[in-house]
Design brief:
Blueprint lengths: L35 E7 L17 H9 L1 E7 L4 H10 L32 H9 L2 E7 L24 E5 L13 E2 L2 E2 L11 H19 L5 E6 L11 H5 L9 H15 L27 H34 L6 E7 L15 H7 L3 H6 L15 H7 L12 H4 E7 L9 E3 L3 E2 L3 H9 L6 E2 L2 E2 L9 H5 L9 E6 L2 E6 L2 E4 L14 E4 L15 H17 L11 H4 L12 E4 L7 H6 L4 E10 L6 E8 L2 E8 L2 E7 L5 E8 L6 E10 L2 E8 L2 E10 L10 E3 L9 H7 L7 E12 L8 H9 L3
Helix pairs in contact: 4-7, 6-10
């Protein structure tokens, strides 16, 4: 037989293996000596929160990393979490990548799609497909529509965007002691109850170390890319008891004293070079901070406790980074690993004036100082969901003005540490050049020696906005490689070019046209204290014109006018997600967003089909957690509805004895308006109890989804959990059916036209 071959096959084919010549397609491989890459991203960590950037918090491992490498003191991200993550992974301006704001909206515009666009490519995809890297991620993803966080579509999940391995939370944040929903690769992790000493930061670090060891054992020559995205120090602020105790009393002097101490330390370390001025206490309208000395003793005591917990969270990040660094050293990989540590935005002001112990409901229900004081000893533990007051955020952002979300320096100036012993000759040196998070991707590609493809799945890729800064890493005197950048967040705007920064502070429901632009020469005034708009009108016009051009190029328009329209325009809410759903027993927890749609600003009916026997006890259905929720359970022979408002207030509606042989239990919630529910409990169609005026839950609460026949993970009722754990129902329970009812009279669906008309006033 004459030897032949197949189309596209380079070998020859005969009748037998022995008589044929095989051919093996080349797989992508890294160049010899290509470095490993580790990116550790903290969440909501301020510029001044590390010891090597002026903090009193104990961070010896990060300080040592900085001492072996460099500290970037002029490094910028975006003012919000999802956009920074998109920019980091793609090198693209985040609106252009589809993530112009957090992935909790879907107003129908490409810059705010809440998922990675098809015409961008992630660092993981490029390093894996072009250079043969093992790619792994742990922690917070937050780059997929919240409506896709259940069972997909998964096209904007980690493993679909280049990561071989993943472990963490797909959405925005989680309970650090009892995470609401862990995902491993593409699958929900089934957990009924966490160990008492569980802590999320420790867990994801354990998995990161395991992934690296596994990859290096399988193929020691193959480099790896690890992206470790912490849930800390995002709210809820929760820490291990020993870490909180370490800082007890440290913050009694308050945020004004702390800020002065940190700035003095920054000057001593050289983080703030001579000539830098400390910005005064924030006084901007709706962003102001009260002097610490004007607070009441109760406020000071409560607020100091919040900061003790925050410090404990930062400390725990450092402890776990030390474990990760040690594991790399044990493997002999540390010297040839590019190690990057940074934060996703400036410190968060979401606790607003007084902070909260109820983060999930705080922004919608306002402050409740008395409720917070009643739980002061619980702050940081699993029964509260705290956030500190914005005065501490101001101190965390020392020496800059304002906070996360703002486009002033405090919103996007973050610490940067880069260590690579085999590639960067440095010993704690500073890099003061302006660089941006979009620069990381092109920098790594240059070091690895691969080009970014021009297409992804046949779709032409948009150009990256980042530029490689290998020259800056190598030379402290090299010029910045990132000369200009556009920024927008929730209507706040800014444009940077060659040391100059034009910026606005937008107030919701005010005209963009009438808004005042400020102008700063950051080379001389990095803390933005001397507005040059009046003395340099030509420079201001140059930068505002550049902003306008860049806004259209990067899909930044339309702007958020502040009427909350972007949160309520969700087609999914009016379609399949608002239909009735039957949940059989033993179904994994229904994902939180899917669950909330069944009750969102509306009445609903819960129908439990069971065959109750004498002595049967346990949870029939539970929705939510310690942050807010409700559960229906049988205990001591009685049927009870427990409602947790998230602030520590529990309401129990007792329907009395549930007879043996009961086949159906019903809880009918009606929504009369004023953001409350009235509830009626029935046993086999006989009304047994009624209660009016239960606070309605919506938004991020309940944060944990619906469980049938058990209350998994963080419980609705801590008292029940302490006595019975997850308290699985002992009897026969077939299924629970949720039937959504009519929207409340004051539900957003009824306000859509009004919101649109209101928003148009500010065009």
């Amino acid at each position: 037989m004459t030897q032949r071959t197949y189309p596209g096959f380079d070998g020859t084919v005969g009748r037998t293996f022995a008589g044929s010549e095989g051919s093996w397609p080349e797989r992508p491989t890294a160049r010899d000596g290509a470095p490993n890459i580790v990116i550790v991203l903290a969440d909501d960590l301020g510029y001044a929160d590390l010891g090597c950037f002026g903090s009193e918090i104990d961070t010896p491992h990060l300080d040592a990393l900085a001492q072996r490498g460099i500290r970037g003191t002029n490094f910028h991200v975006t003012p919000m979490c999802s956009p920074t993550r998109a920019a980091l992974l793609t090198g693209v301006e985040p609106h252009r990548a589809g993530l112009g704001t957090v992935a909790h909206v879907d107003p129908g515009f490409p810059g705010y799609a809440s998922e990675l666009a098809p015409d961008v490519m992630t660092m993981a995809e490029i390093l894996r497909d072009q250079a043969g890297y093992a790619t792994m991620m742990v922690g917070k993803w937050h780059l997929a529509k919240d409506s896709d966080c259940a069972d997909g579509p998964r096209h904007s999940w980690p493993c679909q965007r280049g990561f071989d391995r993943y472990y963490g939370v797909i959405d925005a944040f989680t309970n650090m002691h009892q995470p609401h929903r862990l995902v491993q690769d593409n699958t929900q992790v089934d957990v009924d109850q966490y160990p008492d000493d569980y802590y999320f930061t420790d867990d994801i670090t354990d998995h990161a170390i395991s992934m690296v060891r596994s990859a290096k054992s399988a193929n020691p020559a193959r480099p790896f890319f690890l992206y470790l995205a912490h849930g800390a120090v995002h709210a809820p602020l929760q820490a291990r008891p020993e870490d909180i105790e370490k800082y007890r009393g440290r913050y009694d002097a308050g945020w004004d004293v702390l800020r002065a101490e940190r700035f003095a330390r920054q000057q001593e370390l050289g983080v703030a070079p001579p000539g830098v001025e400390l910005a005064p206490r924030n006084t901007e309208r709706d962003h102001d901070v009260r002097p610490w000395d004007e607070l009441s003793p109760d406020e000071q005591r409560l607020f100091a406790r919040h900061m003790e917990v925050y410090a404990g969270m930062v400390d725990r990040i450092d402890q776990n980074l030390g474990r990760l660094v040690q594991s790399l050293e044990d493997l002999g990989e540390l010297d040839n690993t590019i190690f990057v540590f940074t934060s996703d935005n400036g410190a968060s002001r979401e606790g607003e004036v007084a902070g909260t112990t109820a983060y999930y409901v705080h922004l919608l229900q306002g402050d409740d100082l008395d409720a917070d004081l009643a739980r002061i000893d619980e702050i940081g533990g699993p029964t509260t969901t705290p956030h500190y007051p914005r005065g501490w955020s101001m101190a965390s952002n020392t020496p800059f003005r304002l906070y996360k979300i703002n486009t002033h320096q405090g919103g996007h100036s973050v610490p940067l540490i880069v260590s690579w012993p085999a590639g960067i000759e440095a010993g704690g040196d500073f890099r003061r050049q302006y660089q941006h998070v979009t620069d990381l991707l092109p920098t790594f590609l240059e070091i690895v020696g691969v080009d970014r493809p021009t297409t992804r799945n046949g779709v032409p890729l948009v150009d990256v906005q980042g530029t490689s800064f290998t020259s800056v890493l190598a030379d402290a005197d090299a010029p910045s490689t990132h000369c200009e950048h556009v920024v927008e967040m929730n209507g706040h705007r800014g444009y940077y070019r060659d040391g100059w920064h034009a910026v606005t502070l937008h107030h919701p429901m005010t005209s963009f046209t009438d808004e005042t632009w400020e102008l700063y020469h950051l080379d001389e005034d990095p803390t933005e204290l001397h507005d040059l708009a009046e003395t340099h009108p030509e420079k201001l016009r140059e930068l505002t014109d550049a902003w306008e051009t860049a806004a259209w190029e990067n899909r930044i328009y339309p702007l958020d006018e502040g009427v909350s329209l972007k949160y309520v325009v969700r087609p999914e809410r009016n379609e399949v997600f608002a239909l009735p759903v039957r949940i059989p027993r033993d179904t994994p927890t229904l994902e939180r967003w899917r669950s909330v749609q069944l009750i969102w600003f509306r009445g609903f009916t819960i129908t439990v089909d069971l065959d109750h026997g004498a002595g049967d006890e346990g949870v029939l259905v539970a929705h939510g957690d310690q942050g807010a929720g409700y559960s229906l359970y049988v205990r001591g022979g009685e049927l009870v509805l427990a409602h947790n408002d998230g602030r520590g207030h529990m309401t129990h509606v007792n329907a009395g004895v549930i007879p043996a042989g009961t086949r159906q239990v019903t809880a009918e919630f009606t929504a009369p308006g004023e953001r409350v529910w009235d509830v009626q409990l029935s046993i086999d169609a006989t009304v047994r109890a009624e209660h009016s005026g239960l606070p309605m839950l919506f938004g991020m609460a309940p944060f944990q989804g619906i469980d049938v026949g058990i209350d998994r993970r963080s419980p609705v009722s801590w008292e029940i959990y302490q006595a019975h754990g997850p308290f699985p129902y002992a009897g026969s329970l077939t299924a629970v059916t949720y039937t959504p009812g009519e929207p409340a009279p004051d539900a957003p669906v009824h306000l859509m036209d009004m919101l649109r008309d209101l928003g148009r006033r500010y065009e």
